[in-house]
Structure to design on (218 residues):
């Protein structure tokens, strides 16, 4: 135990940097995924039928493809196309596309769960489509979509550990580098697992608190 604590202290800055990178990538990915997913969900419900097909294809591909394959694709395909992305940018792109597919589907479900009379009432008082979405539909959809959105955010944090395979300096890769110097494999992997667990539990608790606050405002 003394050896582990000593090595943990010596490795504190690389591990903190990896932890910071994990949080940054997860945050950027959920923002990107939420933006993509919101547009996809709205299109799947309100776009003309012929225009929904590309969005359905996107959702089906993303939800049916392993995250590791998406990460490798986001890393290698842009290079083949002549687009230079850093490993961090490729990782955020992969996780953002992954989140976008899942958030798009849950947004579609939340929008379709709102009674049609809500939209009809808004149109009857002259609300345009953007105002109808902003003031009537989306506030109700957010309440319905919040719990699964939190689950998606938790999955992104866990999925960020896969970015070590393309060299992103997140927590798992930094942990592996530390293990390569001191060979305390079990101890440091358990430590990294505990960090992921604490962050995900904290996010889950925050989500439940937000859900209660939003529910109280209904």
């Amino acid at each position: 135990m003394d050896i582990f604590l000593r090595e943990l202290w010596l490795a504190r800055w690389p591990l903190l940097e990896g932890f910071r990178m994990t949080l940054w990538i997860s945050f950027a990915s959920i923002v990107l995924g939420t933006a993509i997913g919101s547009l996809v969900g709205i299109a799947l419900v309100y776009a003309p039928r012929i225009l929904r097909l590309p969005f359905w294809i996107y959702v089906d591909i993303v939800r049916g493809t392993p995250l590791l394959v998406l990460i490798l694709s986001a890393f290698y395909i842009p290079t083949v196309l002549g687009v230079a992305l850093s490993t961090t940018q490729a990782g955020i792109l992969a996780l953002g596309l992954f989140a976008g597919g899942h958030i798009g589907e849950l947004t579609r479900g939340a929008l379709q769960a709102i009674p049609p009379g809500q939209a009809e009432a808004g149109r009857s008082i002259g609300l345009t489509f953007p105002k109808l979405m902003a003031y009537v539909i989306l506030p109700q959809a957010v309440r319905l979509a919040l719990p699964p959105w939190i689950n998606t955010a938790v999955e992104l944090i866990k999925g960020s550990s896969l970015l070590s395979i393309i060299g992103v300096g997140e927590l798992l890769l930094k942990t592996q580098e530390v293990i390569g110097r001191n060979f305390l494999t079990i101890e440091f992997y358990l430590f990294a697992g505990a960090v992921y667990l604490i962050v995900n539990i904290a996010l889950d608790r925050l989500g439940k608190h937000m859900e209660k606050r939003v529910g109280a405002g209904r």
Residues 2-216 form a domain with the MetI-like fold fold (CATH 1.10.3720.10). Residues 19 and 83 are 28 Å apart (CA to CA).
